[in-house]
Amino acid sequence: MEYKTNLIKAQFLRRTSRFSATVNVSGEEIEVHVPNSGRLRELFRPGQNTYLQYIESTTRKTKHDLVLVEMGNTLCSCDSRLPPLLIEESFNKGELDPFLGFTKLQREVSLGNSRLDILVSSTDMNCYIEAKSVTLVEGRTAIFPDAPTLRGTKHINSLLSAVEMGYRAAVVFIIQRADAQHLSINRQSDPLFFQTLRAAKFNGVEVYAFTSDVSLRGVTIQSPIPVNI
């Protein structure tokens, strides 16, 4: 997923709401959109180098999205909209091994009272996919979730329902950085999500995780890593 414009370097100052922040660009404080409602406390620290994408629009209050954060020698994408797009891009290139053999991809599909990110299909099988964005890494361990997620638990239950109806179903964790070697489900942060995912995996829901190659040019899915549940 390539950025359409050159990114602008800025220093993070403060989070002003769930979807906005104040940053410093060449000595000027500006308000930017944060495309992620998560807490992201490990990313958003005063003085942290970040990168902005200019968005041309006549209706927005802000002119930039905060899309990348420098974490030492690692760039981390903080755009929670990206994971389904990255999966779609890799699927179209034939690069997602778990879903080889499927020929069609649909976005934002309904299943019962839930809306799931992706449905891939072939002549004889459907697979429902829910994508999850991961930004928290400690050491070499990616961690999800960083806060309780009732919505995430609902999605896992919907995937389990799909399996019970005879379909394939998968949750795909996209770690939006390259420095993780495995993913750990955060039992302390959200024991209900942990238990629900563990039971769903035991009953047939597939669980995958991939790191990302993140640069100032764009973000792409990189490598599969193991998931510890």
From TrEMBL:
CDD domains: SfsA-like_bacterial (cd22359). InterPro entries: SfsA, SfsA_C, SfsA_N. GO terms for molecular function: DNA binding. Residues 83-216 form the Sugar fermentation stimulation protein C-terminal domain. Residues 13-76 form the SfsA N-terminal OB domain. This is Sugar fermentation stimulation protein C-terminal domain-containing protein. It comes from marine metagenome. The lineage of its organism: unclassified sequences, metagenomes, ecological metagenomes.
